[in-house]
Amino acid sequence: MKLPQYLLVLIILLSFSKIAYTQEENITVEQALKQEKIEGQFNTVIKKSGRYQEYKVIKQVWINKLKANTLDSIKTLESKLNETNLQITKQKSTITGLEETLAKTNEDLTAVTNEKDSMSFFGASVTKSSYMTIMWLIVAGLILLLSFFIFKFKNSNTITTEAKKTLAETEAEFEDHRRRALEREQKVMRKLQDEINKQRKAGAK
Asked: DSSP 3-state assignment of 120?
């Protein structure tokens, strides 16, 4: 590839990078508050906020929308957490029933092993080997069902743990951001008031 071709490729790559950067910069705060996740919304609001000396000045409408979005996310997480807890309760009940059924089946199986070869099974006469095969198939099916519900229970428990963790992190993040924003606002208001007082004193002289 000759030197002009290298330059052409470089110019094209730089053009694409500039277009992508321009598109990213053109995203408004309002669009970000509708499209991005909570963390992205916080980052966009901080980035797009005005600056007063070393402080960030955030528009009231932005912080209100950010608060509403955060509360909505918390409500969604709480709803999912409640649904997962309800599902876990149902699965616990199912697992308990299966365990009881399995225990009863094992008791029946133990009793069967002590009887003679010919026996009645649901009114039909079957050999001991056939009866044992049927019972073991039933036990195997119950064990499979029990294993399935235990797996579902553990999976739901993992989801619940993650949801609780995410909810706690979101609440902590929101509270920390709210506190920092309030502190910034109070500092700015105090500085503005000091400036007003200085102007009044200067005018009085």
From this structure: strand
